[in-house]
Design a protein that fits this description.
Protein name: Nitroreductase
Keywords: Flavoprotein, FMN, Oxidoreductase
Mean pLDDT: 94
CATH architecture of one domain: 3-Layer(aba) Sandwich
Structural class: alpha+beta
Pfam family, one: Nitroreductase
Organism: Ferrovibrio xuzhouensis
Low-confidence stretches: none
Cofactor: FMN
Amino acid sequence: MPAVAADTVENAIVGRRSVRDFSSRPVPMVLVERILLAARRAPSSTNMQPWKVDVVTKAARERLVAAILDTESRAPGMAQAEFAYYPQQWRSPYAERRRQVGLELYRRLGIKKEDQARARQQLLRNYEFFGAPVGLILSIDRDLEAASWLDIGMFMQNVMIMAAGGGPASCPQLAFAKHHAVIRHGLGIPADRIILCGMALGYEQIDSPLHAMVTERAELDVFVRFHHQ
């Protein structure tokens, strides 16, 4: 296999963004399959390949979205994931980084801090895959350990980088883990799997106020230590 130019790889990595407003333009299923075929080359401990993916489009997507939104309308904000993702107590620098992303998102959308109704409406957009025509639901066998979760993270990164290189945009979505019961029932996912997250896949809505929103990244001296002697 020929070597890939370093700048091509770098452009795909640096150019990847979590998009939160998609157009209705369909993503060809042959492209979705190509993305997933490439992503499966992610490394995994002893080649376990622990990732499981359910792809929802068209009527299946609409049914899942409707079922989750119905649950949210009857019990707003009550659903909980089967695992802890965020820390129990936020602290610096993570609290500031999280707050900054939320402030920038709401600023672009024109949502004021006190406007709880619009904030709630934006939150529910998660469960519509932000309008993307393709949704992925990722799960893992319940008896696997933390290292396999790392492997799935690398698989997900491959999906997002491959998508960025092929045209579609993406957004990983933890929010779907909260509605594991609805998802499990709707997609026939067995109880011996944990619903980890969702992912939106589609083409960005170019005229969206969220277009080209880029989050900041820390400089090397914040998170890297070099040891030379």
